[in-house]
Amino acid sequence: MKTHEIPTLLQVLARTFPALIAKHAAQPGAKPVKLLVVDALTELFHSHDKVSSDMLSQRAKSLAEISTLLHALASAHRIAVLVLNEVVDVVDRFSDAPLDESHDLIYSEQARWFSRAENIPGEGRKQASLGLVWANQVNTRIMFSRTERTAYLDDVQERRAKRRRLDDSQKSHSIEAQPTRIRRMSVVFSSVAPLMSMDYIVTDEGIVTLPD
């Protein structure tokens, strides 16, 4: 379902989606709904208006309302909820200011822990959008990013073939060796899983993880 405004999303989460789950469960032999995806929540909060305290207050209120409904749905129907966010450039304007003289620096330090992944050089240049208000609503934050590194598909396929212990006649090779961008997945924080990171690439066959 497309929800272009915040009130529409609230209506869907409060009424439409629970009704859909009930209707689906009533069908003979139907498998239960196990996943709800919101793609992407940030789009509902884009604005060209000048940022004001009233705007920030209303945004925080809306995020809290959305979060309350999502947590209620997850708990009542035992479903997983995946919310896609966006990233923004990191601008540390007060990086040289004393900690006790700038509220902006305090916010920036918190953002480092809850909105950024800094496992490899350059990864910390981006942080999750929607700020700390939203960070306090979620149980797990996972960040996906593209690195400046590349890998050759032939090398990756060779390693996969060896792991499967195939003989030479069964190994698959790409027609032409070509570099592909290495991507990074990092668990920024989680209440149910350990912090970790891994490299992966996207191929025609799907996602392939790379060894450390």
In short:
With 212 residues, the protein is of the alpha+beta class. 34% of the residues lie in helices and 24% in strands.
Written overview of the protein:
The chain folds into 2 domains: 1-84, P-loop containing nucleotide triphosphate hydrolases (Rossmann fold); 100-161 and 177-211, no CATH class. It is an alpha+beta fold and 212 residues long. The longest helix has 25 residues, at 53-77. It starts with 5 loop residues before the first helix and ends with a strand. The chain has 5 helices and 8 strands. Strands 5-6-7-8 form a 4-stranded antiparallel beta sheet. A two-stranded parallel sheet has the order 1-2. β6 (179-190) and β7 (197-203) form a beta hairpin. This is RecA family profile 1 domain-containing protein. It holds the Pfam family Rad51. Residues 1-87 form the RecA family profile domain.
SS-based class = alpha+beta
Oligomeric form: single chain
Approximate shape: globular
**Secondary-structure element sequence?**
HEHEEHEHEHEEE
The count of domains is 2
How many runs of DSSP E, i.e. beta strands? 8
Number of helices: 5
Please state the average pLDDT score: 81
Q: What percent of the residues sit in helical stretches (DSSP H or I)? A: 25-40%
The CA-CA distance between the termini, in Å, is: 39 Å
* CA radius of gyration: 22 Å
**Sequence of strands across the biggest β-sheet:** 5-6-7-8
Main beta-sheet annotation = 4 strands, antiparallel
The portion of residues forming beta strands comes to: 15-25%
Low-confidence stretches: none
GO biological process, one term: resolution of mitotic recombination intermediates
InterPro entries: P-loop_NTPase, Rad51_C, RecA_ATP-bd
GO molecular function, one term: four-way junction DNA binding
Pfam families: Rad51
